[in-house]
Amino acid sequence: MQNFVFYNPTKILFGRNTISSIGPETAAWGSHALLVYGKSSIKQSGLYEQVTSSLQAAEVEITDHGGVFSNPLLSHVQTGIEKVKQNDIDVIVAVGGGSVIDSAKAISAGALVEHDVWKFFSGKKSIKKTLPLTTVLTLAAAGSEMNSGMVITNDSTREKFGFGHQMLHPKTSILDPEITYTVPPDYTAYGAVDAIAHVLEFYMTASDPETPVQDRIMEGLIENAITACNRCLENPTDYNGRANLMWTSTLALNGLTAAGLGRVGFPMHMIEHSLSALYDIPHGAGLSIVIPGWLKWFSKTHPARIASLGKRIFPSADIEEDSDELVATRTITILHNWFGRVNSPTSLEEVDIPQSDIPRIAENALALAKVWRLTNYTAETIEEILHLCR
Ligand code: NZQ
Ligand code: ZN
Questions:
Q1: Ligand 1 pocket check: which of 274, 283, 290 to mutate, most ligand atoms within 8 Å of Cβ?
Q2: How far is the CA of 246 from the centre of ligand 2 (A)?
């Protein structure tokens, strides 16, 4: 196990009847909030009323900033930053999924600088301070509610870049599984795929081979994401299904799984971000296309690592005396088939992306590979992986 620093200052309030705490949790940090949310779900579910009542009861003034798109856009973040600057706003409240929370994070950092907020994403500037952020999570997926990352799409360049900094951790995140009862089947599945991807990225790219504690945690998270997602799809109001999916997706990317692994990469996300950026497909849908292709490519050099995952979580993948290569192939097939069963796409064709677009996607991804220092990924390598996404 490698040396590590694990620091996670986000306070989590988890469970039923926790939404009413958003007022006092926010009032602890400021008196005028920018309320960031998405297109329509929180108004349809009545959550908007619950949140604004709690904020008002805690004497927090509210300026609205709704309309965040899935795959959130830089231009909408920039409008939010202007609102903060013009209205003496001192705290940000995000009510939504990863897109809303990421937009709120970008606003919280961008509102305190004179330069364009995109400079953080392109690696030209680093964050020195942020406005405090509280969140109410409405969708189990990205993990943004308890981590230091944010992902935004630059609408003029069609680049979807992620950036991480400790100061982006929310102060408090409220996780009420009942709020996710209304998440439709497609986004429920995409969220589970995203959580699985977050775990797989670190599991596969860990540079230290002796990390049994993290390995068992990660295998458990993947197993649980699948089981909990199946339960939620069968019964959308299964409290424990929703609760387990929610906590799994939070733990999948809150820093815990990476502790001790040494240097890790995020190559599947590097490629997926180009699919979302160029074709505006949901993040989880892009990942279920990329994961099997990337694993097939990786299994050429590292079949044992994939086989070790399969042996732990898919007992049917392990037949005594079978080679690592065979077990790895079976593991990839089991994952691929599960993505299909929950209706998450598994090929570029399924989302109408022609093979002739592969060079363009690879070129787009290469820009992020450079920012993320994934130096072993050339355009040719990325194209090779994309050709396996079928
Ligand atoms: O906009 P509304 O009307 O709210 O609808 C949303 C949206 O259409 C809907 N939704 C959310 N909660 C709901 C609900 N519908 C019914 N009931 C509810 N309770 O779901 C749709 C998708 O929402 P979105 O926030 O886009 O999904 P997700 O949480 O998957 O976030 C995706 C974004 O997170 C980024 C992705 O790249 C993508 O842009 N990620 C952020 C990460 C991070 N900050 O650490 C890491 C991830 O790898 C990921 O890249
Ligand atoms: Zn993700």
A1: 283
A2: 14
Beta-carbon contacts of 77 under 8 Å, excluding residues fewer than 6 positions away, are: 103, 106, 107, 110, 117, 152
Report CA-CA distances (Å) from 91 to 49, 108, 121, 175, 255: 19, 8, 22, 19, 25
List pLDDT tens digits, range 219-276. 999 999 999 999 999 999 999 999 999 999 999 999 999 999 999 999 999 999 999 9
Q: Over the stretch 285-325, which tens digit does the pLDDT of each residue have? A: 999 999 999 999 999 999 999 999 999 999 887 677 789 99
Q: Do domains 11-179 and 185-387 have the same CATH topology?
A: no
Q: How far is the CA of 24 from the centre of ligand 2 (A)?
A: 30
| pTM summary value | 0.97
For domain 11-179, the CATH class is alpha beta
* Residue 273 token pair: 């971000």
Compute the distance from residue 269 Cα to the ligand 2 centre, in Å.
6
CATH number of 185-387: 1.20.1090.10
Burial class (CB in 10 A: 0-12, 13-18, 19+), 387: middle
Q: For residue 179, which atom of ligand 1 is closest to its CA?
A: 19
Question: Hey, where are the domains in the chain?
Answer: 11-179, 185-387
